[in-house]
Design goal:
The chain has 124 residues and is of the alpha+beta class. It is built from three helices and seven strands; from the N terminus they run ααββββββαβ. The chain has a four-stranded mixed beta sheet, with no helix packed on it. It is elongated, with a radius of gyration of 18 Å.
């Protein structure tokens, strides 16, 4: 997904430069920098009984792993702290949810299940 976004922004930037639209080019560079920053700073860590989800300066949430009720595979394209459309939807507490995209989903789920064995996992 990052490659597609980069190609679109680079292609747009080249067209803007060729047409001499420098303000549009500057905006494209800023957008590219923002997207690159978000991809580079999106990560998920487990600290004790907590799952910390971080995506740049926009999203920073800590979820108690014992409060997670369900993990479901998803391809939901909604905006989320995820760098791929191959996602997991983490449902927690009463109605809360977040979409994430850990690289090794099975290992990630297995690790969470060592802390909360009652997790309900829904596979496609």
């Amino acid at each position: 997904m990052a490659t597609i976004i980069a190609l679109v922004i680079i292609g747009t930037s080249i067209a803007l430069v060729l047409d001499g639209i420098w303000s549009g080019f500057i905006i494209s560079v800023l957008v590219f920098g923002f997207v690159a920053h978000m991809f580079a700073t999106t990560y998920y860590t487990v600290n004790g009984g907590d799952l910390n989800i971080r995506s740049g300066f926009i999203y920073n949430k800590t979820i108690a792993i014992h409060g997670i009720t369900e993990i479901a595979e998803s391809n939901n394209p909604l905006s989320a702290p995820a760098t791929s459309l191959d996602r997991l939807e983490i449902r927690f507490n009463k109605g809360g949810s977040v979409l994430i995209s850990p690289k090794e989903k099975d290992k990630f789920i297995a690790h969470l299940r060592t802390i909360n064995p009652s997790l309900n996992v829904i596979r496609k």
